[in-house]
Amino acid sequence: MRTLLVDDDRVDRQLISALLKNTGLPIDITEAQNGFAALDVIASETFDCLLVDQRMPGMAGTEFIRAFRDRSNGKRVPILVLSGENTNSLTAEEAMGAGGDFFMAKQDMTAGRLKAVLRCFSQEE
Asked: The whole model's pTM is what?
């Protein structure tokens, strides 16, 4: 499963990558440190799913998701929106309204929870 991880925090990217590897699923992870870098990556590569931090400087996760959906040419790629702060129902609504498919608070993230979401994503295709 080709996965793009978009998060401005290097330590968070390392932790999330480690959790993804611990799911036991065949995952190929590409990292981008912000929405602009992620848009550059998706211009030349395709992914099976995206994990996107909601709060990033420059381009928020919701802005990136909208831009990605506009450029996806109708291809449906599942998006898991992550948030390390402000994890209330309004934050989740904002993420889903932008085109996210699932919302998860970083503090609640485990390899098991990621595995469950990614399995759901792979069944959508």
From this structure: 0.90
